[in-house]
Amino acid sequence: MDLLDDCIERIAELQSKGETYFDEGLFPAQRINRLIGYERPDTTVFFTAIIVFTLQKLKPLLSSKSQQLVDEIAQKGVRTYPKFQNKDGLKTYNFWKTTPSKHFPNGRLFRRFDHFRIPDDTDDTAMIYLTSSPTQGELRWLKEKLSLHANGTKQRIRNTYPEYRELKAYSTWFGKNMYIEFDACVLTNVLYCIYEYQLPLNQHDTDSLAYIRSVIETDRYLTEPFRCAHQYPRTVPIIYHVSRLMGAFQIPELEPVCEKLISDTQHLLRKPHSVMDEICLKIALMRLGVKVKSEKRKVEAKDFEGFYFFIAGLLTAYENPLLYRLAVSPLFQMRWECEAHCRTLMAEYLALQQNQ
């Protein structure tokens, strides 16, 4: 069987049929902190949404058999979304189930305290809008909702570089009392949604783009990725997300960093990387129009071990300087791992390579 078809078939097999812990249609994931021997099954919607998004975008490059599988995967995935919708029925979405709240599912400690319940977020919401069929009214409502929670509307950001504090960029979080946070990867997903649906641009959009451009221009995304993207605190996912946005849309504000992004990515690829990080960097180059040497690579489950795309920083929210300095330590982070997402990245790599 073709490697790409095989990959799509394996992803379909991994989608839950209603097994223990995971609702039918969700993709199983685990939250992990190996330093303290912590591992729990995690029923987040996020992997399901980003897998569906990636596969839907790859669909024109797939065989008819794989296209049919992608449609089935998407239908099953989208049916899980209502369980993660805002608890009051608004059209925003949470990382975890909301009615009742299932924060830190299958845990022993954090799930018992409301303090650890997180508000809906712009990242999950953008991905769910991108993979479902929102109405024009819902899209206009979302644009207004994003503006209401942007920096400077009601609150001001504190946990960023001083020169970014006046930017009216979008925050990661909804929620009345939630702090403002800039995350380069989350911003690319929100902007992807805005460009995809051709929503009118405003200062929140241009300032969000200014933030993304600046963290690349200044090398901060290379030297201090945690400060640039608290949820995706590594250079590799930042490159992956920014290149995906730039590859999909003509965005004048980001054009000045295109050559630098390509050069930095090529430089990084000269160094040793895990299999999955190398795949993400090569996907980024192909998204930016750079040809990558063709290789048919059979990836095995052992190549996925330890690969994480995003985290939860347990101390990120605190504005105390000492606690914020500690937040960068893996000891105070939860990492999420998902085999189906790794295989989706592999499918993306194979499909783009085949299409070069």
Keywords:
mainly alpha; 356 residues; single chain; 14 helices; Glycosyltransferase; 4 strands; 5% strand; four-stranded antiparallel beta sheet
Notes on the structure:
- A hairpin with a 4-residue loop joins strand 1 (29-33) and strand 2.
- With 356 residues, this protein is mainly alpha-helical.
- It contains 14 helices and 4 strands.
- It has one domain: Glycosyltransferase, CATH 1.50.10.
- Helix 6 (184-196) runs parallel beside helix 10.
- It is globular, with a radius of gyration of 19 Å.
The chain-level mean pLDDT equals 91
Distance between the termini: 21 Å
Strand order of the largest sheet: 2-1-4-3
Total number of helices: 14
Radius of gyration: 19 Å
Order of helices and strands: HEEHHHHHHHHHHHEHEH
> If classified by CATH, what would the architecture be?
Alpha/alpha barrel
CATH topology: Glycosyltransferase
Decide which structural class fits the backbone: mainly alpha
Helix content: 40-55%
Number of strands: 4
Whole-number count of domains: 1
Which residues sit in consecutive blocks of at least 5 with pLDDT less than 50? none
CATH class: Mainly Alpha
Note the main sheet.
4 strands, antiparallel
Q: How does the overall form come out from the CA principal axes?
A: globular
Beta-strand residue percentage:
5-15%
